[in-house]
Amino acid sequence: MLDDQLVVQFLRNYGQGSLQKIDFTGYCWENLIRQSRRVNLLSRVAYFLCELELLEKIPEQPRQHFINAIKLSDANARSVYVEVKAIHQALNKEKVDFILLKGAAYVWSGVDSGKGRLFTDTDILVTKETLLPAETALSHNGWFALSLDAYTQKFYREWMHEIPPMTHRSRQTTVDVHHTIIPPTSRLKPKPIKLWQQADAMENMPGLFVLSPIDMIIHSATHLFHEGEFDQGLRDISDLDLLIREGVIEGNKWEELLVRAEELDLVKPVYYAINFTQKILLTPIPDKIIVKARSLAKMNSFLAMIMDVLYSKALITEHKTYSVNGQSFARWLLYIRSHWLKMPVYLLAPHLCRKSWLRISGQKDH
Amino acid sequence: MLLSQLPANKISEYLSTQELCFKTGSINIAVKSNIPAIIKHITDFYSHYDCLEKSDFIDLHVEVYSVGGYRKFYKPQVTFSFDGYEPFIPLPLKQAPAMFEWGLNWCIANVAHQYLIIHSAIIEKDGYGLVMPGTPGSGKSTLCAALVNKGWRLLSDEMALLSLKDGLIYPAPRPVSLKNKSIQIIKEFAPNAVFGDVIADTLKGDIAHMVAPVSALKGQSVPVKPAFLVFPHYEDNIEKKLIKLSKARALMTLAEHAFNFNVLGEEGFDSMANMIEQVECYDFSYSDLTTALDGIETLIQ
């Protein structure tokens, strides 16, 4: 099922170093462009083609879309530079250290998963103690929180791992300030202090860090397999593929990855990550490592099988050129599951009831 | 082949069951919609556009469809999708044609980065390209519609596509969108122009579309060299005033009207500076349409 989707095939070809061998004149570029744009991967696909000096071989009309997509990710990278410097300036004055997360971190630190990576918000991690000073410092330097109602404020502040997003008044860019990587109400309890201990300091920017390469993988895995949002699932799988190839496969650091995942209490998402990147993008991950991760995660084979079916459906790019039976049902189940993982039932039930009520009565929801 | 040369009922059949494909300038578009108002809009406004073949490369796949679930019955809504992505919140169903046109503008502005895209009307006469950027209410579309009815060629009433390669502006002719009072003004000014129904109470007020003239489609692959940059300002009861602008000032103002300036960065800045270098720049205030047109015609004499 996975094999038929063009964007999946393309990413596999890139990973296996066989992109040069595709039929450049007969290739269905239009479908590749459509599918990859749908999951925010068009710039990455274009970056790969450019990196391998293959753009010239592509017919003119599709080539223009790739060239334009590269302009977009270049612009994104330029704006990250401005944004991170501005955040750093604001926080550094108050001696608040921060770790850049996700897209901004990939682009800023120059790892492979920054290749053609698009994103809109800048995510940062601060310690719980510096959360308030960070919020104050940002609000003194032009960022403000959108006015949210009391319930949403309370929802963010009491149950979530971040404060409400703050938007810059003139640049209209958004920063998400987190104090841990998953909601504190979740069953899994990773300790953020452990992430700080291994974070890499950035040159010439005292107080600015990115996660260590291994922790980047674990965080990316946790984000995808804990949050229940699969709209750009393939983009996230591609991130994981690039992160794993660069951070683990190159130095054969499998042991390190699993030990660290256990240390952070995040083996389960790491199991899903290596299992599905191998399945979907054929990332060269040894089977025995996947089996080991599964047993460390204490998953029985029945549960693993069910999750296999659900995620395999959910992670496929939703696009007209390619339909997946049962995808919305799978995504819905996983969405419910993600809430289940994040909140105890006594919090979850009223929260979902409220969301449904807002939707049915046609009111806005955040 | 033109859309109007398709066998009877094919426009509506293709639109609702597969996709209807046509081109505007260098941009190939595929549309799907089962909304009667969209089928009528395309039949009325796009019949003289070129049909595309199955083998042609399509730049933009768009769809307009009704949404709302159980709300369909008492509050029907419409949404625009760019190949699965919905850039806008749904609008009332009767605004479907306006949403289609806005949606296409959005797609072009977000995809066609081979151009510096300026929010501006662009028309041509005797080889002179006239770029008229304008904030809402400035009267750019009104002037554009009037001039087009006086023999100027329409390239676009909404976006000037300035090529980064050759500094020429490329056409993407589409229906001219007129708002509020200017609908009546142009109907009186050009009784032969063909208009669609007025769509009332949109975000931008009342809207009516005017069919793009056949000359616009005939010249859709002919780019134009920009010669004049005019910033129009409509004001009540004033004498028309054409004031020459300094190039530096014009550049600063024009930058605010570019959709993709930040995407293009240096490349976009250079193209804009080159264009400003070659054109005469004016601020133009006017009240009365007829005297305004005389003012503009004198520019090229």
Give the tags.
heterodimer; A: 366 residues; alpha/beta; 16 helices; 7 strands; 58% helix; B: 301 residues; alpha+beta; Rossmann fold; 8-stranded mixed beta sheet; 6-stranded mixed beta sheet; 10 helices; 31% strand; globular
Low-confidence stretches of chain B: none
Number of domains of chain B: 2
Write down the secondary-structure element order of chain B: HEEHEEEEHEEHEEEEHEEHEEHHHEH
Overall spatial form of chain A: globular
At the third CATH level, what is the topology name of chain A?
Beta Polymerase, domain 2
Overall 3D shape of chain B: globular
Tell me what the CATH architecture of the largest domain in chain B is. Answer: 3-Layer(aba) Sandwich
- Structural class designation of chain B: alpha+beta
Count of beta strands of chain A: 7
Query: Radius of gyration of chain A from the CA trace?
Result: 21 Å
Largest interface: A-B, 22 and 18 residues
Largest beta sheet of chain A, briefly? 7 strands, mixed
**pLDDT below 50 for ≥5 consecutive residues: which ranges of chain A?**
none
Description:
The complex is a heterodimer of chains A (366) and B (301). With 366 residues, chain A is α/β, with parallel strands linked by helices. Chain A has one domain (2-342): Beta Polymerase, domain 2 (2-Layer Sandwich), CATH 3.30.460. Chain A has 16 helices and 7 strands. Chain A has helices at residues 6-15, 29-38, 42-51, 60-93, 102-109, 131-140, 150-159, 192-198, 213-227, 233-249, 254-263, 267-281, 287-296, 301-314, 327-342, 345-360, and strands at 98-101, 121-125, 143-145, 166-168, 174-178, 200-201, 208-210. Chain A has a 7-stranded mixed sheet with strand order 3-4-5-2-1-7-6, with helices on one face. In chain A, 42% of the residues are buried. Chain B contains 10 helices and 17 strands. The model of chain B has no long low-confidence stretch (mean pLDDT 94). Chain B has 301 residues and is α+β, with helices and mostly antiparallel strands. In chain B, strands 7, 8, 9, 10, 11, 15, 16 and 17 form an 8-stranded mixed sheet that branches. In chain B, strands 3-1-2-4-5-6 form a 6-stranded mixed sheet. In chain B, strands 12-14-13 form a 3-stranded antiparallel sheet. The radius of gyration of chain B is 19 Å and the shape is globular. The longest helix of chain B has 16 residues, at 96-111. Chain B folds into 2 domains: 1-111, no CATH class; 114-301, Rossmann fold (3-Layer(aba) Sandwich), CATH 3.40.50. The A-B interface holds A 29-30, 34, 37-38, 59, 61-62, 64-65, 67-68, 71-72, 74-75, 78-79, 318-320, 362 and B 28, 57-59, 61, 71, 83-85, 111-114, 262-265, 267.
